[in-house]
Specification:
CATH class: Mainly Alpha
CATH architecture: Orthogonal Bundle
Oligomer: single chain
Strand order of the largest sheet: 1-2
Order of helices and strands: HHHHHEEHHHHHHHHH
CATH superfamily: ABC transporter involved in vitamin B12 uptake, BtuC
Amino acid sequence: MSLLNVNLHSTPAYKLFLLFTCLFILAVAVGLVSLASGPATVSMREVVDILLAQPEGINSQIVLEFRLPRVVSGFIVGGMLALAGALMQVLLRNPLAEPYILGISGGSSAFALLAISAGLAGAWITLSACSGALLTMFMVFAFSRSAAGWNPLRVLLTGVVIAAGWGALISFLLAISPSAMIHGMLFWLMGDLGFSQFNQWYLFLLILAVILAMIFSRALNLLAVGDLQAASLGVSVNWLRIFIYFLASVLTAAAVMQAGSIGFIGLIIPHAVRLLIGNDNRLLLPVSVLSGGILLVFADLLARTLLAPRQLPVGVLTAMIGAPVFLILLQSTSAKQKP
């Protein structure tokens, strides 16, 4: 039986309350530890006082102007990637699907590197990354369409080919770029929250995406079971797939624009949540968003503190955490599927 087959059993209300309470407490705890930790250590009590009273002083400036925007941005990006990964796995009916599989990250990164190579910075890099992501989104959509309609396998193959093309362009840019630019390019490619700032529009996008995904969560459950079953129960399969594709693509593009290419969040979080609580998207999607945000904030905490005062790209930490976790999840899944 596929990993994406849905068991629509009802979860007791007290278990749901306990689950979301634990996730909320964990998110607050990781956030507070992240705000307190760094080259300049701030006590936990002082962090709470700063958040509540916002007094003047160097520690207040460190917490409010440098660390807090990074923590909030990390939570938003992690939530976006986890939600995009969960949607992609339903769209492609493939448990190995993840936000970057259709080449959107590659297009965004390639255009961002082009901007860096041209000596641009700041908003120009973000605008270039957005242009690359949007171009890739519409390229995959256009080339994967056929007279027979929307085919997940065709979408996957089209995205993989386009991603390979962007990968070749990225390699070319790295090969010809001056050595002084290589460091910044590599940090972008590996993912970094160092230059990300809190933007209310990204938060609005995440909230809107969660609301839309929850509205269509029942239809997503039916689509995961099969096209015929979904269509027989009144789901417009082709339109739902187009909606999932564009929603996941926009989330991926926004995450890449904010923090570069951060891998494994969108792959391992939906897997882990699915193994813990089941496949019902009505619960899977919001839990994935919370878990993805928590994981990325935790990984960024490690990236800032392991080799302090030097900082690692957070994408390196997510890969180091994600690879063994994914192998463990894979072994756990295989053991459950044995007769």
